[in-house]
Amino acid sequence: MLNKEQDIFNVLFEAVSEGVIVVDDQQKIVSINSSIEKMFGYEKDELVHEKLNILIPKNYHAGHGDHFKSFLNKKEKRQMGKGRHLYGARKNGDIFPLEAGLNPFKIYGKNFIMALIIDVSERKKAEEELIHWANIFNESLNEIYIIDADTLKFINANQGAQKNIGYNLSELKNMTPVDIMAEKLGAKLAKILNPLREGKKKRVVFEDMHERKNGTKYPVEVHLQLSSLHTKVVLVAITIDITVRKKAEQELTHWANIFNESLNEIYIFNSDTYKFINVNLGAQKNIGYDLTELKSLTPLDIKPDYTEAQFRKKVQPLLEKKEDKLIFETVHLRKNGTKYPVEIHLQLSTFKGKEVFVAIILDITERKNYTKKLENTVDQRTIELKKALAKEKELNELKTKFLSLVSHEFKTPLSGILTSTILLGKYKLTEQQEKREKHLETITNKVHYLNNILNDFLSVEKLETGKIKYKYDNFKLSKVVDEVIYNANMLLKVGQKIKYPENIDEISLIQDEKTIELSLSNLVNNAIKYSPENSVIEIGIKQDAFHTTFNIKDNGMGIPEADQKNIFNRYFRAENALLTQGTGIGLNIIKSHLENIGGTITFESKENIGSTFVMKIINEVLL
Questions:
Q1: What is the rounded distance in angstroms from the CA atom of residue 186 to the CA atom of residue 316?
Q2: What distance in Å separates the CA atoms of residue 481 and residue 478, rounded to the nearest whole number?
Q3: What gap in Å lies between CA 318 and CA 608, rounded to an integer?
Q4: Helix (H, G, I), strand (E, B) or coil at 194
Q5: Residue 361: how many CA atoms within 13 Å on its side-chain side?
Q6: pLDDT tens for residues 45-97?
Q7: Architecture of domain 3-123 in this structure
Q8: In angstroms, rounded to a whole number, what is the distance separating the alpha carbons of residues 526 and 490?
Q9: 3-123 and 469-618 share one CATH topology?
Q10: Hey, is 272 helix, strand or coil?
Q11: Around Cβ 515, how many Cβ atoms within 10 Å?
Q12: What's the CA gap between 396 and 399, in Å, rounded?
């Protein structure tokens, strides 16, 4: 090209703002302007005489030659923005979108193409962002409505809104927000919009109920603000279906109520510092601290039996995930200083994204009291059972003694009767009458003895069945004493004497006379039986305004201390009296009789020294 022509091109190139490239029919760059230098990052001398491919991304090189030849043959101009998407390659390797307007021309018989290049990176970026937001608008699961700020008619609604509300876009364009509000209150909507229209707020957020085309209703949270669309003022409403949130809030409220209304104590505390974070009302009421006070405390402040080291060791299995839950018993300390036993259910949880301990506390005071009471009852029953077993053992021993005793007591007199009967058969002569009478007396005495034993057994049976009837009369006590002593004199051993009581002639009683005689006779006879020869049996009687007391004292063998507790038990006989005739039921009978008529019987005794029995009766039985 001539220098003159080159000067013309240079002036022309620099006069336009677009990038200008001139290439010949071999795709060699003939000339560029400064805009191209800035656009592609090359100096002019780096591009002139280079192939056009230097400015084209490598992945487009293969097809570019054919496109170039085709365009050159057609020799048609091409406007910018038409045709394929084009990309350029900068010196630093960056690829960027561009538009090119192509103008073929011919000078001095040579073909050239002048390309006007525009960098459309920003425009493409804006278009992509616009497409991105359009996609967000349409693909958003939230409902988005564009509303005419004047007429309140819907202008647009995304797919999420159309799907959830049930109306399509054509239907919605004939409606206003009032038509989908469950309450259908235009005044309510106007009140919501006023702060926006008056410029007091840039955005309002409120909750409402929307009504679908099928009549179902659902809760929503609406974010409403003013915007513009094609120079027109519009309202943009982003509507969130909060059905799930409302259910979650209801459930949360439900659990919060359970938390606070639970009668058990529930504590939430930090897993690192152990500081209490929240405590339900049941815990606050029982422990005595309010929530503000508790937030400055830790479990160690209410667990007097734990040191910090002990507590950390206790909860370590939870922190190390070796255990899901710990259950243990301890003691809690109230604000007022009182203590109470608790059962603790402790586990890890999360609260506001942080790891916390949740402790559910059961006040087991009643359980402990019941357990203690049960243990005491078991101990008491064990003691009673041991006593019963011991008693049964004693009774078995008494029964054994009784059987042995009865066998002996019946066998001896029966043997005597049999012997006397046999001898009577041998004494047939008149001069043997004295011997016959002696044996007849022996038989009579033995029969009386056996009769007395049987009477004692019958008395026991009557006392047990309550068949005894007492007859209360007024009588002189001296009459009873005389009768007892008279009969006892026939039982006295060699040298034995009975000391008669003094000053009893004026003593009278209103009592059962036979019972008094039986009881006194039994005691006097026992004193004779268990005392040695040449001893004295003393009878002492005193009367006051209410009672008459009998003291029968002997100097006999006495009762061993170990046997004294059983002396009034039926069939019991002391160890030192087993070889002496007796049934062991006499004292038991008179004790039962005396108790029935309001009397008592006690004794003091020392082995080998003697015994004193004290019988005390009331003077007058009230009839």
A1: 62
A2: 5
A3: 77
A4: helix
A5: 27
A6: 999 999 999 999 988 888 777 778 777 777 776 664 455 678 999 999 999 99
A7: 2-Layer Sandwich (3.30)
A8: 14
A9: no
A10: coil
A11: 21
A12: 5
